[in-house]
Amino acid sequence: MTPVLRTDALGKRYGRRQALTNVTLSIPARRVVGLVGPNGAGKSTLLNLASGMIAPTTGTIEVLGSRPAADATQLARVGFVAQDTPVYPNLSVGDHLRLGARLNPGWDDRLAQQRINQVGLDPTQKAGRLSGGQRAQLALTLAAAKRPELLIFDEPVAALDPLARRTFLQSLMEFVAELEVSVLLSSHLLGDLERVCDHLIVLAASRTQLAGDVEELLTAHYRLVAARGDLDPPPPGIEVIQATHTARQTTLIVRDTTGTLRDHMPAAEHLDLEEMVLAYLGRAAEPVPTANAGQPLEVSR
C-alpha cells in the first residue's frame, strides 16, 4: 500500500532560518498520526508542505504517492484544517455547506448534513457567532465531507476548552472509522494524542527525533534506575536517550534495540507516551550531546 506521506531529505528554509532539516519519513496509510514538538520545531511547516501550500527548499515530499497539490484531483484527496480553524464569519453554517458542495466534486452532502445535525449546529447561524468548539466542528465537517483520503490538522484543539476538545476528538475518530481515512494531527497536548493516535512523529530543532507506530515505540523504551556507576557503561544494545544523576543514583531513559533488555534487567520500567516524548525533546534541547546518547532516531516504516 502506498504510504500516505513519504519524504526524503526534506528541508525548508525561510531566509536564514532552517525550519526543517533532512527529514526522511514513510508513514503507512490508515494511521492516525500525532505530530508533536515545541514551538518552532517545524510542525506547521511540515503540514503546509504536505498540503501543498508551500514548496520544499531541498529534498522531496509525496502525499498519497503524488506531489502535494499537483492538480485538482490531488487537492480533492486531502482535507486541511489550519490552526485557527478558518471559516467565513459572514457566511452561515448552511452557506459553508453549499460552498463546499460547489468547490468539491466528491462532496458528501448526506455526511455533512448528518454531522451538522449531530453536533447541534444551526444551519442559519453565521459562522462568526459560533463558539470555538462549534467552529472547529464546522471546519472538521467541511474537511471530511470532501471524502478525502488524508485529513491534515494543524493544532485544531489548541484554543478549545477540555470539553470542546473531547467532543472534537470524538467526532474525528468517528470520521476515521466511517471514512477509513488517514489523519495527520499536530498538537502540544500529549494526552489528547495518546487517546487518538497510533503513529507518532516527534520534531525538534527542525529535525525528526522519533517516528513510528506508538505501540512499537512504547514497547522499546524503558526507564532504568540503579546505583550511580552501575549503569556505566549501559548494557549492550541500549541507546541512551536521557540520563540524570544524583549523588547516589542514576536514571536512564533508553531505547532497547535488541528486544532483550527485560531478560537481563527485569526491573526495567516501560514509559508512557509523555515520558518518552519529553525525553527526546530534552535530548534535542541539549547544546552538546551527552556522552552516551546516540544520534537522533529516525524510524521509517
UniProtKB/TrEMBL annotation:
InterPro entries, sorted: AAA+_ATPase, ABC_transporter-like_ATP-bd, ABC_Transporter_VariousFunc, P-loop_NTPase
Keyword Membrane: no
PROSITE patterns per the UniProt record, alphabetical: ABC_TRANSPORTER_2
Keywords, ordered alphabetically: ATP-binding, Nucleotide-binding, Transport
Gene Ontology MF: a single term: ATP binding
Domain ABC transporter: 5-230
Matching Gene3D superfamilies: P-loop containing nucleotide triphosphate hydrolases
Matching Pfam families: ABC_tran
Superkingdom of origin organism: Bacteria
Keyword ATP-binding carried by entry: yes
Record-linked SUPFAM superfamilies: P-loop containing nucleoside triphosphate hydrolases
Protein name: ABC transporter ATP-binding protein
